[in-house]
Specification:
Elements lengths: L12 H18 L13 H4 L4 H18 L18 E4 H18 L1 H8 L10 E4 L11
Helix pairs in contact: 1-3, 4-5
Length: 143
């Protein structure tokens, strides 16, 4: 499971579909509707939120919006649109780590997206994240 901190616009089709599915699974975990993935490190930042359901639905909304821009048919009805907007922090180290990780995937899967992302000085974060100076997040599993 990878719930990216970078903006979903950088993901290729395979990555965006995977993000959608994995975030829907993450929401089920946060709702207590599944036994698997309960201790997955990618969920820690959402679990720490006072309003974790609002946070995960807001995250999904941005993924949905990116899919709609591309003409994909993701299920709008899968999101609780009554969420109250929240803001989360992500570190510069995490963004840098995810950029490297994403570029290695795109280099193999999608040369156009790879070129687009690698030409950026810095990838922007998912819209709900505020970037703060810092190292890779403690919850990250470094490969």
């Amino acid at each position: 499971m990878r719930i990216w901190s970078v903006h979903p616009k950088y993901l290729d089709a395979k990555g965006l579909v995977a993000l959608w599915r994995e975030t829907l699974l993450a929401r089920q975990v946060l709702e207590g509707r599944t036994k698997g993935y309960r201790n997955h490190p990618q969920l820690d930042r959402f679990k720490q939120m006072d309003r974790s359901q609002d946070a995960i639905n807001q995250y999904l909304a941005s993924v949905f919006e990116e899919s709609a821009k591309r003409g994909y048919n993701f299920g709008r009805n899968k999101i609780n649109w009554n969420f109250s907007p929240v803001s989360m922090q992500v570190t510069t180290g995490q963004i840098k780590y995810e950029t490297t990780h994403l570029l290695s995937k795109l280099r193999i899967r999608n040369v156009l997206k790879f070129t687009e992302a690698s030409n950026k000085e810095r990838l922007v974060s998912h819209p709900m994240f505020n970037v703060v100076k810092g190292e890779i997040e403690k919850w990250e599993i470094i490969q």
